Amino acid sequence: DLILLSLLGLTMLRAIAEPTFKIRQSPVNMPLFLLCLSVFIGMGTAVLKHGIGFSHTTYEARILLYYSIFFAVVNLIQTRAQLTRLVYGVFGIGILTAILIILQTISVPSFFQPEPSLSASEVVRRAFHPGFTSILMTIMAFVCLLGERHTPLNEGLLWLTLLVLGSSILLSLGRNIILSVSLTLLVLLLIVGGRQRVRLMQSFFVLVA
Question: Taking the complete model, does pTM exceed 0.70, yes or no?
Answer without folding.
Answer: no
